[in-house]
Amino acid sequence: MQKHKGVRPVQKTNPEKASVFGGRLRGVFSACAFFSAVFLFSCKSPVQFEQVEPLALVSGDSSMVVYIPVSENSVFVEYAAAELFGLSKENARTIVPRMENLVLASDGSGKIQVAVEGNFPKAGIKMAFSEKKGWNTETSKDTVFPFSVYSSKEVPVQFAVPDSKTVLASDDVSKMLLRYEACQTVFFPDGTEKNKENLLKTEICDFLTDNGGVQIRFYAQTPGDLFGKIVGKSINLGLNSLSGILEKSKAGEKFALTLNLELSNSAVAKAAVKMLKIALFPLPAKIVQKNSIQIQISDISLSYAQLMNFLCKI
Fold first, then answer.
1. In whole angstroms, what is the distance from residue 137 CA to residue 131 CA?
2. Between these two residues, 253 and 2, which has the higher pLDDT value?
3. Quick one: angle between helices 304-311 and 74-85, nearest 10?
4. pTM reported for the whole predicted model
5. What span, in angstroms and rounded, lies between the C-alpha atoms of 242 and 247?
6. How far apart (Å, rounded) are the C-alpha atoms in residues 15 and 226?
């Protein structure tokens, strides 16, 4: 999928045609949205939803967001699917090849949101979430459109598949469905008041998606003690934000990690570099002060198990 600035959904409508819904017609169209949806579904006509960038479907105030190009990191994604969702290796190997990009976001309390972009045929979804396999299907109550929500006693999150290109997972997937619905500009030209404002910052999205289709990237808006969890040592640096880049290592089941630290106080930058060199010894990490508030740490090796350890605690 072509990279998009920020978290704006892919626009497939002609701007000139879209303007028809502008001005005075916007209020009328919004008021009629519910009745239009009921009519469409009562006639059993397939609704053509606009594809939505995965980053637009997670909360803008997420403490931590991870963006994964799946095809280049499929082995790790299979590993993570088994660890996070309790999926069998067999099921993970069936699902992962259909994924293109995966976004994982955490609110800092252990609750996660997952948005996946890929190719998920309707028949396959029905089979995967069938009652025979232990899944319960309900209809979303908070959205205008009656999306199916799948839950199981064996899996700690709910799933939803609003279109054949999108899979959502969360402890409360209805919030993600509301964001998805808000991005359907054909039906809601102005979005919905509840969700259109709670988006990730453009600069965060640009960093995450500028990955060459290869790197796993993450960004922590509220890093807290995340740095200590990653390197295995508690260090108080007073961080404003923390971001990282993970690239496949030649060693099996390992990544080469680069960390970017943004300090909240420029006066302590030099002292922070010295502190890091002492604290990280004997790790062969390269520590460089990039500017008055930014420090970069590279040449760190991180195993799948170590990465999952801090992902499960964010």
1. 8
2. 253
3. 40
4. 0.80
5. 17
6. 43
Tell me the residue type at 113: Q
From residue 227, how far is each of 41, 64, 112, 174 by CA, in Å?
A: 49, 12, 19, 31
The two most distant CA atoms of the chain are separated, in Å, by 69
Residue 88 and residue 82: Cα distance in Å, rounded? 6
Angle subtended at Cα 219 by Cα 214 and Cα 225, rounded to the nearest 5 degrees = 130
The Cβ of residue 218 has, within 10 Å, a number of other Cβ atoms equal to 25
SS3 assignment, position 52:
coil
- Give tens-digit pLDDT for 176-196: 999 999 888 888 776 555 555
Tokens for 277?
A: 């060199």
Which pair of structure tokens corresponds to residue 165?
Answer: 């290109």
Interval 224-252: pLDDT, tens = 778 877 877 777 788 899 999 999 888 77
Among candidate residues 165, 159, 75, the one with its CA nearest the CA of residue 117: 165
How far lies 246's CA from each of 106, 121, 284, in Å?
Answer: 18, 31, 17
What would the two tokens of residue 150 be?
């799948």
Going by DSSP bridges, is the β-strand pair 254-263/239-248 parallel, antiparallel, or unpaired? antiparallel
DSSP secondary structure string, 144-202? SS--EEEEETTEEEEEEEEETTEEEEETTTHHHHHHHHHT-TTT-TT--TTTTT----H
Using the CB atoms, write b or e for 155-174: b if 16+ within 10 Å: bebbbbbbbebbbbbbeebb
Mention every residue, 6+ apart, whose C-beta is less than 8 A from residue 31.
Answer: none
Residues near 247 by Cβ (< 8 Å), separated by ≥ 6?
Answer: 214, 215, 216, 255, 256, 258
Q: How far apart are CA 238 and CA 76, in angstroms?
A: 31
